[in-house]
Specification:
The chain is mainly beta. It folds into two domains: 29-62, no CATH class; 71-374, Neuraminidase (6 Propeller). 13% of the residues lie in helices and 38% in strands. It has helices at 25-33, 41-46, 50-56, 59-68, 99-102, 235-238, 320-323, 398-405; strands at 74-79, 84-85, 87-89, 104-105, 110-116, 119-124, 131-135, 140-143, 155-163, 177-184, 190-197, 202-205, 209-210, 214-216, 222-224, 227-234, 245-251, 256-261, 273-277, 283-289, 292-300, 306-315, 329-334, 339-344, 347-352, 357-362, 370-374. Strands 9, 10, 11, 12 and 13 form a five-stranded antiparallel β-sheet that branches. Strands 14, 15, 16, 17 and 18 form a five-stranded antiparallel β-sheet that branches. Strands 5-6-7-8 form a four-stranded antiparallel β-sheet, with no helix packed on it. A hairpin with a 6-residue loop joins β6 and β7 (131-135). The protein is globular and about 75 Å long. Residues 1-24 are annotated as: Disordered. This is F-box domain-containing protein. It holds the Pfam family F-box.
């Protein structure tokens, strides 16, 4: 005890010892799995030490990393060109993927028709018009043989889609499916669907559906739940320049086709309509009109049926000074990012519909379809790519790497 007038001795403060990294590889992998799914995340982690590098370059870990992150980032988009399938990157450095990494030359008679789950679907423009699936990350391409029913002059297909099997169904990163919907030549009113599985190597055929004569919109498919959707307009209405659209649905579970009419008052326009998921995860669509947009969804009615209701209205007017021009052209939709690509007089912009954030991604103005590419891509994690360059890591210095590691 101290006497009066004397100060008690100050206790020396002791700081807690610094936390050490776990010694168990399984626990460390669980930590590394939670890194953000950006292209630079795993390359940066691989430079911490040899142990981290061994873990993140393991193909089994990389598959777990991709599956852990349900929604993959929007890396960029593809668009049609006369002699190539160019890739336009959208992310900033150090996550920006160089154009050459995902671009590819193609035969003049091939055209891109769909893009999903890190895969790109091409279609030959000449008989027998066979589809092919390209994986830009793995740098692999597989050409498919058409089912026998389509390899003739009586059937032609107009709707196509590529996807990977749903999670929880034994999906491996190398598995994929291709869906084709075709008309017969007897009045162009009977539609049938075929699904190819890379696991079995065979095509399965669905039940046929009788339709009115219609014209498919030349757009990529939309995947909502476990159903694929395409937009059509009735052929009789095209000559009169008015609307009346319908949505063709293919249920992958039941292998069945169905039709849903769109509201009759929707103005016609190839670049103003796009099927997309509603906020509740059901069927919806977006309709653009100059600098305004309406988001519609299917809602159950009191009698058990479903009806279209206006879910949300968007005014892009305050962005007009940035985008210039007097209207927007809808050129693409990214499913996992819930984002649209719009072409304007000053270039192409991506708009994230949930946050309404937007970004200019290209100065070149194109009014044909763009195909957003969403993928969990880890560049440069110890595997030299075909170009022999560690293209993402070359933008990062050691100080930025250490700052990133300190947040783990």
């Amino acid at each position: 005890m101290s006497t009066r007038g004397e100060m008690a001795p100050r206790r020396r403060s002791t700081s807690p010892p610094p936390a050490s990294l776990p010694d168990d590889d399984d626990m460390l992998q669980e930590i590394l799995l939670r890194l953000p799914p950006r292209p630079s995340s795993l390359p940066r982690a691989s430079r911490v030490c040899k142990r981290w590098r061994r873990l993140v370059t393991d193909p089994r870990f990389q598959r777990r990393f991709r599956d852990h992150h349900g929604k993959h980032p929007l890396l960029g988009f593809f668009f049609e060109d006369y002699c190539s399938c160019p890739f336009v990157p959208m992310l900033d450095r150090p996550d920006r993927i160089p154009r050459y990494r995902f671009s590819m030359s193609r035969r003049e008679d091939n055209r891109i028709i769909d893009c999903r789950h890190g895969l790109v679907l091409f279609l030959s423009g000449r008989p027998p018009r066979s589809p092919s699936v390209w994986d830009p990350v793995a740098r692999k391409q597989r050409c498919l043989t058409l089912p026998p029913e389509l390899d003739n002059d009586r059937m032609y297909f107009f709707n196509r889609a590529v996807l990977r099997p749903a999670r929880g169904q034994g999906r491996r990163s190398s598995q994929f499916q291709v869906a084709l919907v075709a008309y017969d030549d007897r009045g162009e009113t009977r539609a049938s669907a075929w699904v190819y599985s890379s696991e079995t190597g065979i095509w399965s055929k669905s039940k046929s559906l009788q339709l009115q004569s219609s014209i498919p919109m030349d757009q990529s498919s939309t995947l909502i739940g476990n159903s694929l959707y395409w937009l059509h307009t009735y052929a009789a209405n095209v000559l009169h320049d008015h609307g009346e659209y319908f949505v063709l649905e293919f249920d992958l579970n039941s292998q069945s086709l169905a039709v849903t009419e769109l509201p009759a008052h929707i103005e016609p326009g190839y670049h103003t309509l796009r099927i997309m998921p509603a906020e509740d995860g059901g069927l919806g669509f977006i309709h653009l009109s100059r600098f305004n947009a309406q988001l519609w969804k299917r809602k159950p009615d009191y009698d058990g049926s479903a009806a279209w209701v206006l879910d949300r209205a968007i005014d892009f007017g305050e962005l007009r000074s940035t985008w210039k021009g007097d209207s927007l052209t809808l050129v693409g939709f990214a499913e996992e990012s819930n984002a649209i690509l719009v072409s304007t007089a000053s270039g192409v912009f991506v708009v994230y519909l949930q946050s309404m954030e937007f970004k200019k991604v290209s100065n070149t103005v194109f009014f044909f379809s763009h195909y957003p590419y969403e993928c969990c891509y880890a560049a440069g994690t110890g595997i030299v790519d075909v170009h022999g360059k560690d293209e993402v890591l070359k933008y990062m210095g050691d100080s930025r790497l250490l700052a990133h590691v300190s947040t783990l």
